[in-house]
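#help-structures

NK: newbie question. if I give both the sequence and a SMILES, will the prediction place the ligand too? trying with pyridoxal-5'-phosphate
OV: yes, paste both and it writes out the complex. here, I ran yours:
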Amino acid sequence: MRFYSTNNKNHSVDLREAVIRGLAPDNGLYMPEQVPVLPDSFFKDLPGLSFKEIGYAVARSLVGEDLPGVQLQKTIEHTLAFDAPLVEVEPGIYSLELFHGPTLAFKDFGARFLASLLGYFAQEQNKAITILVATSGDTGSAVANAFLNVPGTRVVVLYPSGKVSEAQEKQFTTLGGNITALEVSGTFDDCQRLVKQAFVDQDLKKKLFLTSANSINIARLIPQSFYYFHAYAQLKNTGPVVFAVPSGNFGNLTAGLLAQRMGLPVMQFVTATNMNDVVPEFLNTGEFRPRPSVQTISNAMDVGNPSNFARMLDLFNHDVDTLSERIKGYAFSDNETRAAMKQVYAQRGYVTDPHGAVGYLGLKQFLKSNPDYTGVFLETAHPAKFQDVVENAIQTKVELPERLQAFMKGEKKSVLMNNGFGELKDLLLA
Ligand SMILES: *Cc1c(COP(=O)(O)O)cnc(C)c1O
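OV: that's the protein plus ligand as structure tokens.
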């Protein structure tokens, strides 16, 4: 499969280059040249297929012959090491739980697929890959856990000292092995600046094979399409199906659109945001006005200029009318989100996280005028990840899952450093 840049369809690269580069040289995002439709036999068998069988078939079709079958199988095993169960919350309304991975959010899927592919490409060229990430908390943990023990890779996480929560910090400072945590006396912006500086340093470029695990990487998008098929396979005797996707950078939604393009019979998508409503506004008015983000309780979606918007436009050949028909967009306030968490818990005994609650609200909004649909909302994080907000809303204690408790018992190991580039460079070359 070739992957072109959304800024120039004539610039295309193979999977290896798309994955190692992340972003195209012209700052476009990589897209597969064709999105193959899966055969009828696949859809006939779908209800009986395991998550891994689905993942293998979808990936095989998307990445073509760029990976040997044995490697793809290994990558799928690594990526889908945990399930994404569908839970009925109300008659006709299902929660697709994407938080059963090591860091309790859907980003584990993308990070693990990417880690496995980078590990494979590193092996091809006999030089270890160094993955540099700056984090304000969640990205560092997902990436570090995904790359843990992947041969040929080393992860260096830079984080601002004293500015991430203890739970987040423990998830990337207690791992050891090929994961190094650099505790920077400075801010998140300092960490990001240091990483950017490292990528343009000629000396480092010569001596190391540096790459990032950026969320716009096509390898993070591909595995996110697997769980739409898996969710559909778990539905029985349904009406037309609508997926509601709580969105920030719109990676999850774009992956759903890819699944639909591959033949999954999704009748409608709903995208739901918090007050950072650039895309719902665009879908309703045709005007795209990126702007600085505002802070909300669903903070993983506090995005003012969504990076995957370019991919959405590209998938629809910039046909805004069709795009607005296929995707309904709604935005909700923090108060509406809290009320939804409270109501779903009180009436159904189900605990949602603030992001999932936004998805739920979007779904309900759509179902008001389309009651014959069967709805699935994506529950993107475990409620315990947002313990304070959730406990406040539902007035009940939320248990920390065992794997988070296990992290909390681990011993923190970090390397302290100042916010100067010289020190980072010495550490990387040591
Ligand atoms: C990243 C994130 C989102 C937003 O997903 P996008 O693919 O960027 O739209 C939603 N919920 C949670 C919990 C997240 O971590």
